[in-house]
Amino acid sequence: MRDAYIVSAVRTPGCRRGKGALAQTRPEKLIVQAMNGAIEKAGISKGEIDDFMLGCAFPEAEQGLNLGRIAAQIAKFPDSVCGAVVNRFCASGLEAIAISSLRVMSGWSEVCMAGGLESMTTVPMGGNLPRPLPDWAKECPDVYMSMGITAENVANRYKITREQQDEFAYHSQMKAADAQKNKYYTEIIPTNADRYVEKPDGTVVRETFVQDFDDGVRADTTMDGLKKLKPAFAATGSVTAGNSSQTTDGAAASVIMSGDALQKYGVKPLVKIVAYTVAGCKADEMGVGPAYAIPKLLKIVGWDLGKLKTESLLIELNEAFASQALYCSQQLGINDKKLWTVDSAERRINISGGAIALGHPLGCTGSKLAATIVANMRRKGVKYGIESMCIGGGMGAAALFEICE
Amino acid sequence: MVRRIQKVAVIGSGIMGGGIAALCASAGIPTLLLDIVPFDLKDDEKKDPKARNRIVSAGFENILKAKPALFYDKDMDSQLVQLGNLEDDFNKLAECDWIVEVVVENLKIKQDLFSKIEKIMKKGAIISTNTSGLPLNKIAQGRSKAFKEHFLGTHFFNPVRYMHMLEIIPGKETKKDILKFIAEFGEKVLGKGIVWAKDTPNFIGNRIGVFSGVRAMQIMMEMKMTIPEVDALSGPAIGRPKTASIKLLDLVGLDTFVHVATNCYELCANDESRAGLKLPEFVSKMVEKKWLGNKTKQGFYKKEVTPDWKKIDKVINYKTLEYETFEKPTFPCLDASKKAATLPEKMQAIAYGTDKGSIFMWRTMAEMMIYSANRIPEIADTIVEIDNAMKWGYAWEMGPFETWDAIGLKRSVDRMKKEGMKIPKKIQAMIDKKVKSFYKIEKGKKMYYDLKSGKYKVIETSPLALNLANLRANKKVVKENKSAAIIDLGDGVFNVEFHSKMNAMDGAMGEMIAEGLMYAIDNGVGLVLGNQAPGMPGAFSAGGDLGYMGDMAKNKNFSGIDTMISDLHKMILALKYAPIPVVAAPYGMTLGGGCEVCLASDRIVTHAELYMGLVEISAGLLPGGCGMMHLWQRYVDAIPGNVKIADWAAYLIPALILVAQAKVSMSAQEALKNGFLRATDKIVFNKDNLIGEAKKEILRMVDDGYAPPAKKKYPVMGQEAQGMIWADMNNMRIGGYIPKHMEFIAKKIIYCMSGGEARQGQLVSEDYLNKLEREAFVELWKTEETQKMAAHIMTTGKPLMM
Lengths: 405, 802
Description:
The structure holds two protein chains of two kinds. Chain A is α+β, with helices and mostly antiparallel strands. Chain A is built from twelve helices and twelve strands. Chain A folds into two domains: 4-124 and 190-215 and 245-271, Peroxisomal Thiolase, Chain A, domain 1; 141-184 and 274-403, Thiolase/Chalcone synthase (Peroxisomal Thiolase, Chain A, domain 1), CATH 3.40.47. Chain A has helices at 27-42, 67-74, 92-105, 134-139, 147-157, 162-181, 223-227, 259-265, 289-301, 322-331, 355-358, 362-380; strands spanning 4-11, 15-16, 51-55, 82-86, 111-119, 191-198, 204-211, 248-258, 271-280, 313-317, 384-391, 395-403. In chain A, helix 2 links the parallel strand 3 and strand 4. The two termini of chain A are 21 Å apart. By secondary structure, chain B is α/β, with parallel strands linked by helices. Chain B has four domains: 8-196, 3-Layer(aba) Sandwich (Rossmann fold); 205-456, Orthogonal Bundle (N-(1-d-carboxylethyl)-l-norvaline Dehydrogenase, domain 2), CATH 1.10.1040; 469-615 and 664-709, Alpha-Beta Complex (2-enoyl-CoA Hydratase, Chain A, domain 1), CATH 3.90.226.10; 645-659 and 712-802, no CATH class. In chain B, the strands form six sheets. Chain B has an eight-stranded mixed beta sheet. In chain B, strands 15-16-17-18-20-22-24 form a seven-stranded mixed beta sheet, sandwiched between helices. In chain B, helix 16 crosses helix 18 (400-407) and helix 24 (558-577) runs antiparallel to helix 32 (766-781). The radius of gyration of chain B is 28 Å and the shape is globular. Classes of the chains: A alpha+beta, B alpha/beta. Chain A binds chain B through residues 129-138, 141-142, 144-146, 148-149, 152-153, 233-237, and chain B through 646-647, 649-650, 719-720, 722-724, 726-731, 734-737.
């Protein structure tokens, strides 16, 4: 099979659900700006794209119909550019990259676009009106379980303490604050956002403004502050709003090409997509997914677990919850604090913060983290990058990227 | 010219001013709330409108946050309040038809304010002060005749929404029509009970209140009693609130009380019992230490938290000013009071016992009654004003003279004499004339003894204020049993009055409702379900009588429970489908079965204070009187017919949550939002008018040509809803938010409310839904857990979560 390369990977800022800067902006507008940003950075024309694969975890209502195709039209891609939506919940955006890559690798496409989108303000987690199958909900409701409860299950079953979770969360915030200060998030495209403002005379007008930073980062987070938060999902639990990912609005997109296309358009690749896999686990502790998916990924490329400790590797381990991220890192043998604390020169996991600080816009996250890890790999000059996340319903996904010189 | 109040101004945004503004806005009147510009503005803030409104904004925030709530519907009513400051917005006062001043109790400040207002006010606008003690004639000094003609005192009590009293204090020159107008406005629009006071120190409520509170402390110290003892004796045992004598001052604020009491002492130089108005010194010391009560988290009482997070109550020792733990006080007279059935019997048990507690209470009560009698005509013309003031302003169940009647006029005066107390001449004259009581009912009219003329006079009330006790005395009871009575309201309208403890529903009550309905069908035009139990807010009906059902369950008489529910369904549906209009008139606690009879009626005419909910799950049960079906039908009726069935789930879920989480509305407005009330139901601000308004509603419905509802099938959400809720129950259980048996009950609630085995959108009969409800109800009683939960809430009043 041929190789597939990411030639551009961008994202909108991630902004808080409800109160954040993107809350009054329609999701279509977010993904359209990400698509146009990716095209611009790739330096090719829109018509070269064969197909657009969009990851979305709740593709209904405003995010419904076939937004892959609709977004391509709104973004003024020519009619020849197709589009589809793929849903693997929190790995949807990564799944879109994998599908697009496979199309290129198989020779069925030369240039594809992959993206991810979730406006959690617009379509709430669980959808507007969840409708579980009554019979199955009565027999075994685990696949419908709240994600927070699965995080509690992980914490309880594997004894991840509140203090450990809060500490992990604290470092996520500090790393993100540091990256923001140093302008490391080069993958962000300044994004036009809407807001609806009532004027003193009562008329309501829609205003547009530019948002270019993640607005959920809390530089003033302290361990003491985290300690005081009440459990969010269980009366006597340990998972809080502070040590869980934020619910967020955001979109991301990347352009994926074959080697032939690189030559044809004279484009420089950023990374090569080496491998991708998914692995299943119990639904009621879905957060352990990466602990299965990453070893499976390594097996595909012939690495042993020890290789995770090598210096030439960055890891983006999605922080759906501190409890599951910590547990997975334990299982993978990469739980040494120096690998993820803000003050460590050797840190290689979520080096510029994770979803606890930056937000987890569900279906967008896979695509968003790809943009981030590519930026980090190139900034730090690290050869390999692994992106992995847990997935509702009981799965994990993992992908391996290799830097292009 | 017809006088209307289209806009109100309240000046002063403290707890009282804010409370008055919230009440006016809740009554639907646009309200301007003003306060001063802060004195300490920095230079760059002097032109900033936000900074200039800082005080009024902060006051308004406190009103929004107040607990218990001051607005009836915070989101909507608060929009009617316009904020401003006394400099930039002063001219807006010219738009207002009624201006209420509630600023700091400083004569000079008030005088200056009114002199400015006089210059800009709308011609003919009404001006009032809410001063709690400053003389009106001094406040209005220097104002024009026209101003004085429109000036009066309107004294509200805190918290304004909940305290029924409005003291009206006429100025010397206030026009009669202004007084009449504001009294009617206060009564009908603001729902208050009017007490006519005079321009005397602290008016009526706080004059008697100060004497009563200060004397309780003085006698306590003299008899070497403790604060918890005083409060245990002077609370519910004699029909007064739990806050009794001294705990009340923590609620009011010690600083406020000291201010009011000192004012009273200073201004009442000729009071024959002036020493009884002088506060003990230790109270002033507490104020100096800023131990002001609830607002500073410590006053006479203080809650402390132990290192292991247990809350303990402490009370101040007035000798050492140290906080100490205390035991619940016991006295033989308290036990006797608890056993007594009626309030007069309770009062007699407390007043005429022989233990120390009894002697204490006898002294305080006797002195309070004598003091009150001596205040006529000084502070009020009649005993009725004084009794109403203490009932409506202090939430006593009986005022001083009603108390006197309750413990027996002759008997108590004999004892007073024996103990050397000075009997007021007017009272001695009553005894000499062999008058036995201050009140009596004659020809259906309640009469009071007029101390001035020495004659009984009729108590004049508004024609809407139908009083069931008066009708009862006037032999209007058609029939009655231990739990309820049928009372003839006149004009063909009959009323079923509940009168069991907390108006809990039992078999006897059910029978009387059924009989009352039959009687009204045969002999009249409509039926009201209404009662007038005392209390603020009191209980229309606190739910079903669990004891009876619990006994049946214990004896495994489940077919008995099945029959009972089946009979209940018959009664409820008879109300619903009766050929005559049935109007329920709830107020206060309207829970469980009490809520279900309201849901079955054609219309609800409710007091604004309505705490309504289907709370059966707290007792281990689900609603057994068609409550779930009727709640869902209300939701369905509110959904426009062109909404797609798939979208109905968005309606069912909130309805389900109301029942599964036992949610209770905190006002009639909220009950409307919760879907218990319909838009056609009526909210009445004045509780005294509730039965009268309900009767009026019946006559109007009859006049309009009443047609009873037709029996129809209703669509249900079926198993689709069960899938949605069962999946979420899983989270709640694992999260520790719902214990096992309550999850079991909640699932049964969902099953019944969504129509059992039906599919989404299927039309099902009422009979089918009632069968589901009855089966689930009986099945729950068969479980040990439900029996335990029911027994627990019955004995402790608190739900057992299991």
